[in-house]
Design brief:
The complex is a heterodimer of chains A (about 230) and B (about 210).
Chain A: E1 6-9, H1 15-27, E2 31-34, H2 46-49, E3 59-62, E4 65-68, H3 70-80, H4 96-129, H5 138-161, H6 174-177, H7 180-186, H8 192-196, H9 199-210, H10 212-220
Chain B: E1 3-6, H1 12-24, E2 28-31, H2 43-46, E3 56-59, E4 62-65, H3 67-77, H4 88-121, H5 128-151, H6 162-165, H7 168-176, H8 187-197, H9 200-210
Parallel strand pairs in B: 1-2
Antiparallel strand pairs in B: 1-3, 3-4
Helix pairs in contact in B: 1-3, 1-9, 4-5, 4-7, 5-8
Classes of the chains: A alpha+beta (about 230), B alpha+beta (about 210).
Chain lengths: ~230, ~210
């Protein structure tokens, strides 16, 4: 695993792939984005299962190291590039208490935020985008919106006290960036109101979305993908 | 001052934290939170965990929640090598399989445990459809684990890590429940779990999980 360009397998349309790409962009790392044809079920083909045994995206290759799970890949990217590029402070790994707060809010994203937002994004954005829409299941979306409203109350309280989720004065961390993919999509729906009704969450989202790395990846998150 | 863990030891997420404390030999206190009376939603607990869940954790002025975040903090502070953070490739593999534990193993076991243990305890009836759906998802995951553990001694490689130990709370309930036989088709998984359950730290916490006050 020396120099050499890392590979991300999957489409930037996936919020999970988008998280990894934002980290690579923040780290200033060179990478190759290699498509996986989900419509043709390439994700279930042996060559992809060799990279991600659950047949999902993203998968990631860094020399001989093959990784999957977007949060694990993101951590690796930020650790690897910390001495060279911008990756270092995004994990706070030199400071146990600060690192713990990054970990806490990464877990919150995984266990509280994502379960509350995923169905809204799936029904209102992803399925229509890839042409697999059909009628939206409004009951499922409403249930999700209710959960997200409740979760965002805790985020509002946190972000009223701290500019970024992990707190401290050290600025943005992976905990914030991990919210990018799903929130980017939410803000394109009528459910953006759930964020807009929370002043501190709104302001936090605008700061994240304004980052050059976020803007770059947002431009990639369209279907069909923009030509290279 | 001893570190404090708020929540019942029988909770899988509390147990995960306790085993890490045992692994590093830390001094700690388990502070009960009576979930049957809604104490986890009280203002006092909300100040420790704004999502109203257990565990919460305190070390001096530092308050944490989310069991895997707490676990990492404890292991790092205690100088444990269960995270392999001095090695880029190894620590990445630990992270991968910890995500798998969270997203594929514990997430499918959680509704099974809830339906088979908690619901009857509360006087309700197990929803067998939910149990069956999640058992199927579990089997899919176990197939992946079997392939992995046929190649490597432990999940992250040939070294034990938090990724392995993090499975123990859900595994404890699986092994002790009526669906333990699902493991019979996955011999490497079964052997690996037996080894995890045999760790002194795990045995100690299992005893805590069995206590009625827990």
């Amino acid at each position: 695993m020396a120099g050499g360009i890392v590979k991300v397998y999957g489409s930037a349309v996936s919020p999970y792939v988008a998280t990894v790409l934002v980290c690579l962009e923040e780290a200033g790392a060179a990478y190759e984005l290699i498509p996986v044809d989900m419509a043709a079920r390439e994700n279930k083909a042996p060559h992809h299962l060799a990279r991600n045994p659950f047949g999902k995206i993203p998968a990631f290759q860094d020399g001989e190291l093959m990784l999957f799970e977007s949060r694990a890949i993101s951590r690796h990217v930020l650790r690897k590039y910390k001495s060279g590029g911008g990756g270092g402070d995004l994990l706070r790994e030199g400071d146990p208490e600060a690192a713990a707060m990054v970990d806490v809010w990464l877990e919150v994203e995984a266990h509280q935020y994502e379960p509350a937002i995923v169905e809204i994004v799936r029904h209102c954005v992803i399925l229509p985008m890839i042409g697999a829409g059909g009628a939206r299941d409004q009951r499922v979306v409403d249930e999700s919106a209710g959960k997200l409203r409740a979760v965002l109350a805790a985020y509002e309280a946190r972000l009223r006290e701290h500019e970024y989720l992990a707190g401290g004065d050290a600025g943005v961390s992976l905990a914030d960036l991990a919210h990018f993919g799903f929130t980017h999509y939410l803000m394109a729906t009528e459910y953006a109101a759930l964020v807009e009704e929370r002043p501190a969450v709104s302001a936090w989202w605008r700061r994240i979305a304004a980052r050059p790395a976020a803007r770059k990846v947002a431009a990639l998150m369209s279907w069909p993908p923009p030509p290279n | 001052m001893a570190m404090k863990v708020y929540g019942p030891a029988m909770s899988t997420n509390v147990a995960r934290v306790l085993v890490c404390l045992e692994e590093v030999g830390a001094e700690y206190e388990v502070v009960p939170v009576d979930m049957t009376t809604g104490e986890h939603k009280s203002p006092a607990h909300d100040a420790r965990n704004p999502f109203g869940q257990v565990p919460a954790f305190q070390d001096g002025d530092l308050i944490l929640y989310e069991s895997r975040a707490i676990s990492k903090y404890i292991l790092r502070k205690g100088g444990s090598d269960l995270l392999r953070e001095s090695n880029l490739a190894e620590s990445a593999m630990v992270d991968v399989w910890l995500e798998v534990e969270s997203g594929h193993f514990s997430s499918t076991m959680s509704p099974i445990i809830f339906q088979c243990l908690v619901v009857p305890f509360l006087g309700g009836e197990t929803d067998t459809k939910i149990v069956q759906e999640n058992l199927e998802k579990l089997k899919t995951a176990l197939g992946v684990y079997e392939a992995r553990l046929s190649r490597f001694k432990y999940l992250a490689g040939d070294f034990v890590s938090l990724a392995d130990i993090s499975h123990f709370p859900a595994a404890y309930y699986l092994l002790g429940g009526s669906h333990a036989s699902v493991l019979d088709a996955y011999p490497h998984v079964k052997a690996w779990l037996a080894e995890v359950m045999d760790r002194p730290s795990v045995r100690k916490v299992v005893e805590l999980m069995k206590l009625p006050s827990a």
